[in-house]
């Protein structure tokens, strides 16, 4: 029996075109744009000036609080400008514009291909180094990892869960990473376990990645406490709460955090970044990005420097197809549609999905026929049809009573609705309103 | 790039479901029963079905076009289903005029008054049927005896339905065991050779439809199963208490509109509850009311009324029966 | 037969009497005392329940008026001073006069002035679009054109102009209830003092970006050049964040500023002859059309 969560879920067409493509290293572009806010929380504070020369891996902006991380230069070159650059939603964010020259790395970074298996850090050191290296959750949310590793007083982590589900259609970056960097990954997991003082680690991988499952099972067999679990292919299997339910049969209480039930979840990409930060002294300056799409010539997985413009990635994957209708940063279920290509790859960019014109238009909205499909697929046990009409008619109290804040925005309801209703759009709106009310109530 | 990119909130991909597909699925599921009714009742079945469906479509079109002046949604197929279901609930020799009145009431009063598909609180086909039952009690209860395909429409031989035979008999003080000789056997009921309204004669055709709808995931099993289970339990208990005064559960399920109602009428999306738990309550309610009417009520059959009554409770069920929230009873760590 | 009729009459009458007694007792027992003046004040109020006064409805406002010490801060924008004076004289208090206001749309970025950079395909409401991104044009401040304000208006005083993609306010219907101001997620709509003959001069832009950037996305953006600021003889114009703002309290409608604006971002509405200014003329035409009753407010965008 494959492990899975039980309530709800959908089965979108996988379309993992780039699953068989090895990770290719994309050379540094001519110019990179490194935004100061690539993570959830406070933006980092600039510590360099215009005109300064920087080396690859050099610290360029410092974290400004507990929920904030450092940012390093991903290339060597000259800081041309500190400018406002559009992010995925078109709003301007402060970014460092670096013109690259020859790749010269910051001294102290181990660039050799050898795998360093020797772990000699204390938990505190691991957390400190994670913070220094600017590591965030690489699954997409970009939540600073050291915050998750710092266990609040009175709680303790019994199990570390490594999220290799990659349930989003199209995306394959985690899949390739597990396949090609398995050994490093296992060391990264051991580091995370030590930081959390957890005895066990569970790696959850959806069953459509057989090769990765076999590979990691082989490697994990030699280690104590690490085990690999194949998961049923179902979206959102990789949702934090759903993954915990699938692997431990425990449910994160409504409004709570995984640590409340003694579990911490990290993405495989994060575990790999932790390995590099500690064993190789290399900060988070590059990541694996899937560039894919039905009409794209060469769907690929790239190892990309942070700050590379998205258009460079698309060019490297065979150029923008003529029938492009929508460009998504992230997966098609939870990613963000881009309004422009002048957007740099940031720490949270897991993929660039290009949808053809024919698939990028939403369906015509019809009335709700109360078919109950949205209720059936909601993995959080909510009633999307109800939340939508409550949000539309602005009943914040009712919305809160119906637990709108528990929505994980997976989009299963909007996906399944036979009437093409924009359920999640309105639920998100309701969430924002209720969130505002809750915040004002607290103050 | 000269073309503009499309921007919308996530998700960016969509499933294959559409209202039209779902409705088409229901229509396909209704086909076996339609063939059976034509096979047993002949031209009457054809005429009534065609008239009911056409009238429903025309009524919906006219109301949408001239009264509501909204978007035309006639192509979604829901009017066809209403028409078919109404026809299935009528006797095979009903005059065309009455069929037309029933169809107009179904769509006009049962559905469009509330704003059309998705907004009607009651099953429109049942509104039509009950309206006719009250307005034309004689025509609505003279059931033609199934005589094969060549049965003529106007002067068909009529007879009582099995349920009527039992009900009348018990009222006259007869015993169930004597009455059972006068009604068709179970196998006959199963294959459909018994009097009654068009769609309810052949259990096997209806079950085929159910299987199709379950496989295609058009409906879930909860409502039909809960109704049938409740009816068998309830009548089973009564039967065990006094087998001479009460027919056995199998008889109750195979006769009358139980299967038609449980599979096609009660599962109507718009008028059934939104949650699994709610569906159970709804189904159990329908089962209990049906048996109450059948055993102690004035009518031999009661599933139409049972469904309409429970339809009225659906908003209340939706209001108070919520799905189980993820993490609500979250099990905390044992330490 | 007679028996049946008799029984029917008797039983129904009994039920009637019993019910009447119960109702009487309940009415007595659970009676809530309420100041009768609240009802009377409510009568005077326009009964629009628009919420423009800051209370959920006219009744709540009436309660507040009855219990208030002074009318400071309490004003019904729909009824205006006339109604407030009536209420004040009824309650024996002093009326506080407020200026009549009217809503204006501070964005002139019509389709031809502000090119689209992408196509929005989400749920058709501004609140969702604005939470998602900057909108269909490059301007992160301008009108999204999905009509939340029109939807919010209870007085049919707004409609979306399909030629420009911007909302239009009908001055004679606008009661300044502020529903559109609250509905607009970008705070584009402003309530301004109503002047004679509905004349108004205002900066139809709220883009705070530097001139060059603002101009890149929109031909009629305020670029913060301060020329209007320098020419204003009444100190009615302030410059803030690369943006000019004309204070309707101080503005004397002298019309010196509008011709100075290099981008036509200052609109003059309802003045005698139309200036040879593209933007101003356009709006004027719209207004005329409306006054001739040619265009009717559109139905809501039916986001169903």
Summed up:
The complex is a heterotrimer of chains A (443), B (335) and C (304). With 443 residues, chain A is α/β, with parallel strands linked by helices.
The percentage of residues in β strands of chain C lies in: 5-15%
Main β-sheet, spatial strand arrangement of chain C: 1-5
- Low-confidence segments of chain C: 279-304
- Structural Rg of chain A: 21 Å
Instruction: Characterize the overall form of chain A.
Output: globular
Envelope shape of chain C: elongated
Q: Give the oligomeric state.
A: heterotrimer
Mean pLDDT of chain C: 83
Strand line-up across the major sheet of chain A: 1-14-13-17-15-16
Rg of chain C is 26 Å
Mean pLDDT reading of chain A: 91
CATH superfamily of one domain in chain A: NADH-ubiquinone oxidoreductase 51kDa subunit
Report the β-strand fraction of chain A as a percent range.
Answer: 15-25%
Q: Which chain pair has the greatest contact?
A: A-B, 78 and 46 residues
Number of domains of chain C: 2
Distance between the termini of chain C: 58 Å
CATH architecture of the largest domain in chain C: 2-Layer Sandwich
Q: At CATH's second level, what is the architecture of one domain in chain A? A: 3-Layer(aba) Sandwich
Brief descriptors of the model:
heterotrimer; A: 443 residues; alpha/beta; Rossmann fold; 6-stranded mixed β-sheet; 14 helices; 20% strand; C: 304 residues; alpha+beta; Alpha-Beta Plaits; 2 domains; two-stranded antiparallel sheet; disordered C terminus
